[in-house]
Design brief:
The complex is a heterodimer. Chain A is mainly alpha-helical. Helices cover 71% and strands 0% of the residues of chain A. The longest helix of chain A has 29 residues. Chain A is elongated. Chain B is mostly helical. The N and C termini of chain B lie far apart (38 Å). Chain B has one domain. The chains are: A mainly alpha, B mainly alpha. At the A-B interface, helix 3 and helix 6 of A face helix 1 of B.
Chain lengths: 138, 60
Amino acid sequence: MANSTTDRAKPAQTETISLMAILAPAVGWLIPGAGHMIQKRWIRGLLLFVSIVTLFLLGLAMQGRIYRANGGDILDILGFVGDVGAGAMYILTLANDWGQGAIAFATADYGTKFMIVAGLLNFIAIADAYHIAIGKKR
Amino acid sequence: MTITLTHFSAALVFSLCASIVFGIAHRDNTREMVRYGAKCFAMFLGGVFVAGWIMWLLRR
């Protein structure tokens, strides 16, 4: 009797885990830290959000350049891969035509790197949210 | 709006943000997260000072 109850509970639990394993990384990509927040890791999510968004916005404010999808120079492709990790912020930046990059500012190059790193850090946060979703991490 | 950071303040902000993410992502419990984050931050800043002194020596 106890076994049949356990057997019935198992598929539902697996379904929940697999749904969260897809949902958490997707939401986490779109909004940094949100993958943790939907799994009730509020403080971790908030810290990730603040860190990644601060880095990206500072990069923009420093007149950094945003990379678009391209098939040219390998460094440009890698720049795009990094930037795209920022999710909604990247989409918003492209939509508003921000992040053109200004050669006049010496710190603009730092800004470009800040935005790439923000995207790459978000990839790490996404992987962490996934590990929490599959139960590999608490 | 344009923000102009110095080399050091840019490195400081970068180190802080990256250390927070590293700490959260690479450790399992809160205590270890804080310790690892602090260690990463110290290593980043230490690296900045070491690189700075090396560049100063090379320039002379």
